[in-house]
Design goal:
alpha/beta, 52% helix, globular, binds adenine, binds zinc ion
Amino acid sequence: MINFIEKLPKAELHLHIEGTFEPELMFEIAKRNNIKIPYNSIEEIKEAYKFSCLQDFLDIYYQGANVLITEKDFYDLTYSYLEKCAEQNVLHTEIMFDPQTHTQRGVKFETVINGISKACKDAEKNLNVSSLLIMSYLRHLSEEDAFKTLEQSLPFKNKITAVGLDSSEKGNPPSKFIKVFEASIKEGYIPVAHAGEEGDADYVWEAIDLLGIKRIDHGNNCLQDENLVADIIERDLALTVCPLSNTALKVVEDLKDHPLKNMLKKGLKATINSDDPAYFGGQVNQNFIEIQKALDLTKEEIYELAKNSFQYSLASDAKKEAFIKQLEIYYNNNK
Ligand code: ADE
Ligand code: ZN
């Protein structure tokens, strides 16, 4: 089964580039930028990565991102993640980035986007990994601040496919961002949002009804409301589920209690993702491996999850078709 998962062609649809920052690279970049970080060793970092909730994690995650200054820093961070994609048979990835985490510290928007997008271009050529970018607004900041970010992004519109919404969910409902999502859609960006990770089902309703999202990041708490589940199925929206993130942030106590199987049984279109792999103890393949074991998923269910990852990606129809063909050949030869 592990071998089946490792070789399985797949896409990753929920990944924060700042969350891929491995301690080794963090030390290296901190050193070359002459920035002090509050850890003396990789062991100390690992010790600090024990979280009791989303906010607990976010505080440490934003601190880690502080060492990213130059275009090369963003390039190295992104390329290093894309190398991991190639190793894991991730054919396509949709990378979220948080411009405000960096522009707030005086780093220019163009530094961030140029570093990330150059790495994506090189990885497409050298590693055959396809990717696209999701610019995520930080929901703990104001809508006005998100509007500034939208404005800054416009000269780079051709490098960005979608807009997202992340950071502290509780107390920052989707309704806070109606206008900026409307404006983003007018500019041609596809809307997605984190909803129902810590927030209740009403946050998922709002994200669908008020922001018009095309995919739900996490979405676990949609299960609180049967009508919502029916609505998500009716609208054919996928959930980007992140098992190891859920246990690391205590959204789910134990992987054995994870709602994934229940989601699939109800007819929801789920995908498996790593969210912030450097912080939550595993890349996308590790997420597949651990959730398979915990819920005793069959090869057919794993195949279904991988198929959803291509089907519900934001790639062109031609690309999706080619990816799915590759997956089907693999599955027919290995089931
Ligand atoms: N930013 C990075 N990871 C996140 C998560 N799991 N939820 C909300 N915001 C995030
Ligand atoms: Zn996330």
